[in-house]
C-alpha cells in the first residue's frame, strides 16, 4: 500500500505558480493592462440635451454624470425640486417625466433628451395654486416645507394612478375598480418621507382633492 503523500500549499508557492501560468498564457501583468486601458481615448464627457421643462424648451450642455436633479437645480435654477438623501430613498426630488413621477436624483440628465419634465414650479403659483397645493395649505400638510414639493408632485400622480387602475401592493381585487382609500394613498406615498411627521395632514389633503375631483 502506497503511503500517503504529505503536501502543503504555501502562499509564496501559490503566487509564483499563478504568475508562471499567466506568463505562459501570454497574459500581461496588471500594470501593463492598466496602461493600455489608459491610452485608449475616452469619449465626450459632456452632452447637449433639450428638455421641455414646465412647457418651455430648455437646451443645456451637461457633464454626462450630472443627474436630472442637479441639472434642474444647478443649471436651470429650478430649486423647488429638493435634494434630500441623493439616494432615491426620501422622495424630496420627485418630479414628473413624460407624465410619470420619478426620483430625479437617480436619473441622468442625458437620458432625457427630448423629454417633458414638470417640476413644482410648473404646477401652480402663489396667486393661482393647483388644487393639491391649496389642499396642503388648508390641511396644514407641511411643517418645515422641505419635502413638500416632492410630496405634492407625488400626490397628484397617486390619484391619477389609482383612477387609471394601476394596482399597488395593498390592492385587493385586481378585477374591480380601485377605491381611493387611506391604505392605497399611504402605500403609494410611502416613497415620500416627511421628517416632520405631517403624514396625517398630507393624507387629509390628498383625500380632499380626490373627493373634490370625484
UniProtKB/TrEMBL annotation:
InterPro entries, per the entry: 2Fe-2S-bd (IPR002888), 2Fe-2S-bd_dom_sf (IPR036884), 2Fe-2S_ferredoxin-like_sf (IPR036010), 2Fe-2S_ferredoxin-type (IPR001041), 2Fe2S_fd_BS (IPR006058), Aldehyde_Oxdr_Iron-Sulfur (IPR052914), Beta-grasp_dom_sf (IPR012675), TAT_signal (IPR006311)
Pfam families to which the protein is assigned, alphabetical: Fer2, Fer2_2
Alphabetized UniProt keyword annotations: 2Fe-2S, Iron, Iron-sulfur, Metal-binding, Oxidoreductase
All residue ranges annotated as the 2Fe-2S ferredoxin-type domain in the record: 47-123
Highest taxon, organism lineage: Bacteria
Record's GO cellular component terms: periplasmic space
MF annotations from Gene Ontology: 2 iron, 2 sulfur cluster binding; metal ion binding; oxidoreductase activity, acting on the aldehyde or oxo group of donors
Protein name: Xanthine dehydrogenase YagT iron-sulfur-binding subunit
Gene source species: Allosediminivita pacifica
Amino acid at each position: 500500500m502506497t503511503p500517503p503523500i504529505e503536501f502543503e500549499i504555501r502562499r509564496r508557492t501559490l503566487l509564483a505558480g499563478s504568475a508562471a501560468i499567466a506568463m505562459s498564457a501570454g497574459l500581461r501583468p496588471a500594470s501593463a493592462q492598466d496602461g493600455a486601458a489608459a491610452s485608449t481615448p475616452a469619449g465626450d464627457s459632456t452632452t447637449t440635451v433639450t428638455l421641455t421643462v414646465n412647457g418651455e424648451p430648455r437646451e443645456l450642455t451637461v457633464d454626462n454624470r450630472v443627474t436630472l436633479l442637479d441639472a434642474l437645480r444647478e443649471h436651470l435654477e429650478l430649486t423647488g425640486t429638493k435634494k434630500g438623501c441623493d439616494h432615491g430613498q426620501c422622495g424630496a426630488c420627485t418630479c414628473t417625466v413624460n407624465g410619470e413621477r420619478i426620483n430625479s436624483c437617480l436619473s441622468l440628465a442625458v437620458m432625457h433628451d427630448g423629454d417633458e419634465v414638470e417640476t413644482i414650479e410648473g404646477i401652480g403659483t402663489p396667486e393661482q395654486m393647483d388644487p393639491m397645493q391649496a389642499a396642503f395649505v388648508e390641511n396644514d400638510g407641511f411643517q418645515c416645507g422641505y419635502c413638500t414639493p416632492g410630496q405634492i408632485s407625488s400626490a397628484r400622480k397617486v390619484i391619477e394612478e389609482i383612477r387609471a387602475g394601476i394596482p399597488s401592493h395593498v390592492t385587493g381585487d385586481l378585477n374591480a375598480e380601485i377605491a381611493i382609500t387611506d391604505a392605497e394613498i399611504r402605500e403609494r406615498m410611502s416613497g415620500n418621507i416627511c421628517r416632520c411627521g405631517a403624514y396625517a395632514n398630507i393624507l387629509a389633503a390628498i383625500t380632499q382633492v380626490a373627493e373634490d375631483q370625484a
